Each structure stands twice: as structure tokens, then as C-alpha cells.
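The following record pairs a protein chain with its ligand, flavin mononucleotide.
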Amino acid sequence: MAHETHPAVPSHGIDPSSVGAGPGRAPFSEDSLKLMVAIKPAVVSFHFGLPKAEWVQQLKAWGIQIWSSATTVPEAQWLEQHGADAVIAQGLEAGGHRGMFLTTDLSTQVGSFALLPQVIKAVKVPVVAAGGISSAASVRAAQALGASAVQVGTAFLTSHEATTSALHRQALMSDAARQTALTNLFSGRPARGIVNKFMKDFGPLNPEAPDFPLATAALAPLRAAAEAHGLSDYSPLWSGQNASDCEALPAAEITHKLLQGWV
Ligand SMILES: Cc1cc2nc3c(=O)[nH]c(=O)nc-3n(C[C@H](O)[C@H](O)[C@H](O)COP(=O)(O)O)c2cc1C
């Protein structure tokens, strides 16, 4: 994505040689494993499949439960066969990255209430519902469909504790949040965020985006320059399809509200 040569992208005075630097995402590693044995969490939850089998077995031997996201029935079955103790059925409404790992075909991705019952039928392990759940009523609906638990992302992005930027919070609590799309522009993999200028100009899906996770660092200088001017035009505004319950509250209070749906 040669954005420095594209007339639609302002330069913002960025030194092209700085592009590509900055933090990225790292996969689960030997170092992560060392951390896990020190902390011994009850659950380690993965996105994009599972790490290598010996690490999964090692975590399980320490009494740690393995959970991971499935976006299709075959992914749920694969996770169960490879040792997952619970499967998170991630519906298409979900904010952030699609956890898809057996396919890159977005036509395989379905909504939460279509995915959840099919996954429950296909696996014996407990199924966690994710995607578009943001209120006590939607928690209740997921439970009625057989979910053993729910995973909520978007509704916590405006919690006091979240490190969500002011620009991102503003977008989540505005009418702009009504329009989200899957985009690969910000990381190289499809993820759901509020549609902004960059997504309109170049995507939302663009085969020229650098491979995951390189797109994040490639965009970082332009994003920082725009944010310094109070613009979220080049920022990933991650959000699920229902941000309408986002409130600036302590996370405990949001959790308590959601829990009122669990019977
Ligand atoms: C900003 C953001 C970051 C996320 N990061 C992760 C992550 O690192 N690992 C993961 O398993 N899921 C991640 N998710 C996905 C959520 O776990 C979950 O599938 C999703 O948020 C549920 O849908 P909802 O956003 O409609 O509540 C993230 C979601 C958001 C919104």
C-alpha cells in the first residue's frame, strides 16, 4: 500500500523512512509459556486458532483451560479436536478481529444467532457466545439459545478502565458507530470497526494492505499525525455492530448490568 504516492492521502509531513517502525503483534511464544506458568491463570483464550500442540498440552497439564474463537462450524470442530476446553462462537457482528483461521473466505462468516446453535450442535464442549451482546436482554437471548457463557467486547470499550482513546470513545458514542465494516487496512486481517475516511478511501477491504500484522506499523506515523490534529481518519475505531449500549461506566458496573440477564 504505497500511500505516500497516493494523492488522496495527505503527507502530514511524515518522513517515509519512519514508516514500518513501531509496535506490532506477536504470536504466543516460549516467553508467553513462561509467563503462563508463573501466573497460572484459570483460562488462556486464543484467537486465530491455537499455538503448537505441545504448548497446548503443557498449558492443560498445568490445569489451565484452553478456550479459542471459532467463526464457523468446522473451526469449532477443529478446536474441540485439538484440545479446546470451550469454544467461543464469534458471530459476524463482533468488534475487532475475526478469529477465522481455517479459511479466509468472508462468505463463510455468519451472524451470532445463526452461528451459536450450529456450533452447539456440532461440539460437546461448552460454547461461549460472542458478537453483538451488549445488554442484559441480549445476554438472556444468548443463554436461551444454549450459550454456556457470553463474551462481550464493544460494550466495555467505553468503560473507565479501558485504554480506548478519547477519539475512539467519541466515535463509539456517536451516530458514526451505526456504520461498521470489516476492514484489513489497519492490521492486514479482517476486523470490524467504525467506517472512517481511510476505510472509505481505500477499502474497507484492500488486497494491497500489508500482511498481518505489518499494516499496523506501516500506518502508525500517519495515524499519529492525524490524531495529533484531533482526527480519527486513519485510526482503527474497533467496534461491533451494536455500540448503542456503550456507556462511560466502571467495568464492574457494566458487568453487573449484563449479569442481570443471566438466569
Ligand atoms: C477492541 C477489541 C479488541 C479485541 N481483541 C481481542 C483479542 O485480543 N483476543 C480475542 O480473542 N478477542 C478480541 N476481541 C474480540 C472479542 O473477544 C469478541 O469476540 C467481540 O468483541 C465480541 O463482540 P462485541 O464486540 O460485539 O461485543 C476484541 C474485540 C475488540 C472490540
